[in-house]
Write a structure and sequence with these properties.
Layout: H1 2-35, H2 40-45, H3 59-66, H4 70-101, H5 107-119, H6 126-136, H7 142-165, H8 170-178, H9 183-191, H10 196-212, H11 215-220, H12 229-232, H13 244-274
Helix pairs in contact: 1-13, 3-13, 4-7, 4-10, 5-7, 7-10, 8-9, 10-13
Transmembrane segments: 12-34, 78-99, 111-130, 142-165, 186-208, 246-265
Keywords: Cell membrane, Membrane, Transmembrane, Transmembrane helix, Transport
Pfam families: BPD_transp_1
Length: 279
């Protein structure tokens, strides 16, 4: 009887904690969105109030479209994010398949070496990375950002995907080998479709840091033609005067793609996170 009474209470407490965390996480997004449609005075006078007939203004979005090449910044961010995710998922899945499927000398050591990339921030090597990009002539190119983000995301991708690939049935892979399928065909046609939830999880975990990053675009690609959306938004922040309408509008436009992609892949993300916990 006590267990029966405790279970509903535990469920209510857990859901209450999750709802509270969700509200806390969404509150800054809500404040940015509502203030992007208000006048400068209304932003500082009533920052938490919804825009009304007196405070409503689209001046921020008009400024973003007129000043600064917003569509170029958006295009650069989109190219860097999509290409980086493609390489992370491709190379990460191939490395994870090799580590989980084949037993060779140094297999465990290789896994531990890749795990170090999760524990050691890549920004520690910023000076060495910048020097390498200067020597190879990749400064102020999108390829510099793509290479850095790919290297940054591979350790986590290999760590997550290798655990999921170990759960793929050996009988299925052996049946493919008996039918004459090559290892590449087994990988692309049999294994990858079964680990799609894990790949969606890896994609979401890497997409947000890449899309929101300011550090490496500022250091490796500060030229006007290679600015990303996050770096391009900084043109509205001055030393003495800041155009908060434009800043909030630019941030709102930068948030939307991430939220849309998250909604699209949310089911796969949840499946990827929970499938390893439920047998």
């Amino acid at each position: 009887m006590n267990k029966a009474r405790q279970n509903p209470l535990n469920a209510v407490a857990a859901h209450g904690a999750l709802i509270l965390y969700t509200l806390i996480a969404l509150f800054p997004v809500f404040v940015i969105l509502i203030n992007s449609f208000k006048t400068r005075k209304a932003i500082f006078r009533e920052p938490l109030a919804l825009p009304d007939a007196d405070s409503f203004s689209m001046i921020g979005y008009e400024t973003v479209m007129k000043q600064g090449d917003f569509f170029l910044y958006f295009q650069n961010s989109l190219i860097v994010t999509v290409v980086s995710l493609f390489f992370i998922l491709l190379f990460g899945a191939m490395a994870a398949f090799a580590l989980s499927e084949y037993r060779f000398r140094g297999n465990t050591l290789m896994g531990l070496y890749l795990a170090l990339g999760i524990m050691i921030p890549i920004r520690i090597g910023t000076v060495a990375i910048l020097d390498l990009m200067v020597q190879t002539g990749l400064v102020n190119t999108l390829m510099a950002l793509i290479l850095v983000y790919t290297a940054q995301g591979l350790p986590l991708a290999v760590f997550i995907l290798s655990e999921f690939m170990r759960q793929v049935s050996e009988d299925l892979k052996n049946a493919g080998r008996i039918d004459g399928l090559s290892e590449y065909t087994i990988f692309f046609r049999l294994v990858l479709p079964l680990v799609r939830p894990a790949m969606a999880t890896v994609a979401v975990f890497n997409m947000i840091p890449i899309w929101n990053d300011l550090w490496f675009p500022l250091i490796l690609a500060p030229a006007e033609e290679t600015k990303t959306l996050t770096l391009g938004s900084q043109v509205f922040i001055g030393q003495f005067v800041t155009d908060w309408n434009a800043v909030l509008s630019a941030l709102s436009l930068a948030i939307l793609p991430v939220m849309i992609l998250y909604v699209i892949f949310s089911r796969q993300l949840i499946r990827g996170i929970t499938s390893g916990a439920v047998k």
